[in-house]
Amino acid sequence: MDEMRKKIIIQEINSWKESRMLPEQYCNYLLALYCQGELPPSKSNKTWSKKNDIFSVAMIGVLFAFIVFLNYFTEIPIRMQMLMTTISILVFWLAVRRFNGRKIIFQMSLIGMALSLLLLSIGFAEFIAPGKMGFLYIFLFINCGLWILMGNKLKLLHFSIAGGLGALVTLYFLFI
Fold this sequence. Notes:
The protein starts with a helix and ends with a helix. Helix content is 81%, strand content 0%. Helix 1 packs antiparallel against helix 2, helix 3 (46-72) runs parallel beside helix 5 (103-128) and helix 5 runs antiparallel to helix 6 (133-154). It is mainly alpha-helical and 176 residues long. It has helices at residues 3-19, 24-34, 46-72, 78-98, 103-128, 133-154, 157-175.
């Protein structure tokens, strides 16, 4: 195979590896195959990636702080609060899908999504039956169950623990 063609293929494989179109192991295998066993230095820019990660974490934190501010410190109607919280859940879900391979940002997005869902369910319980604690307890148990299921499915111990502790605290307040 001529050298120009090899360089183009190697560049494509590197771009697939950086954009995570293929798993890293496959890309390493293909690179080793086309480079006759020697892996070329990766052209990924780690400083840019770290800056991008820090920016993403900051944006996730700002979005969650905005939603908490919107729900508890403003006088906008409850329907508008619920709509904005639902939109934030969708944004967090998109962030979860986008940052699936990056551990910290992925978990921050999941936590933001779970807490926004908790805020939405509390607002929904207040909207459906204002002053009736039974509905609130039902929604809290559903949230705790979702957190436990998410923790078990994604093998995230802190979600399982948070769901279990949340269910225990809800039971405590239910019987007192």
